[in-house]
Amino acid sequence: MRDVLRLLIYGNIVGSLVYGWQSQALWLAVPLMTFAAFVIVQDRQLRLRIGTRHWPSEGFARFSMGTNLFVMVWNSLLNGIVFVVAGAARSFIGL
Fold it and tell me: How many domains is the chain built from?
């Protein structure tokens, strides 16, 4: 899953650069949706792997969900910043 996370992070940053340069504001919803889907899928896989085992595994699942939610929010903010910087760079150049 870490390879998928890296692919999402780099892909969304490149997408924010490209779509920020083109001033396509609809792009800002895409990183949030992709990371939300990642969080849901990874949590579901982890909970299926845990099965009926009790509290230690459930605590790990909650910890993992919290960590993934933090990654989702952080990367959505980062992509927003990259988007704004790319749009500002384009308008600064005058294109």
Answer: 1
